[in-house]
Amino acid sequence: MDITAQVDAYFAKKPDAFMIFETLRHAVWAAYPSAQLRVMKTCICFDDPKPFAYVSFPPKKSLRGLWLSISLREAMAHPRFAMVVPVSKSRYTVHIHLPDQSAVDHELLSLIALSHR
Fold first, then answer.
1. Which residue segments constitute the domains of the chain, with CATH numbers given?
2. What crossing angle do the helices spanning 106-116 and 15-31 adopt, rounded to 10°?
3. 12, 17, 32, 117: most buried by Cβ count inside 10 Å?
4. pTM for the full model?
C-alpha cells in the first residue's frame, strides 16, 4: 500500500483531524523538504532521516484534533506543552495538542525545529 493510501486509512474515521494533519504536513515539508512520512498502527512519523515528530490522536476521547509528540534534549516549559515526559537525563518527550488547523503556526514550527536538530 502506498503512503497516500496508508494516510487515508489512518484518518478514515477522523476527517477533521485529517485537515489538521494536511496543514501540518505541508508546513513541515516546506521547512524540511527531505522529510518522509512513515505510517504506523498508532501514529504517523516524520523522518529526516531520523524521526523528529509524531502525530497521533489525543489520548482522551474528549479532545478533538491531533496530538503532536516531539523530542527535546533539555527540559523546558512552554504554554503549548500539554505534557512533558522525561525519557532519560538528556531526553524529553513533549506532547502538544493541536485542536484545529490554526494551531499549526510559526511558533509550532519553531518547536518542531528544536526536535529536528
1. 3-116 (3.30.1460)
2. 60
3. 17
4. 0.92
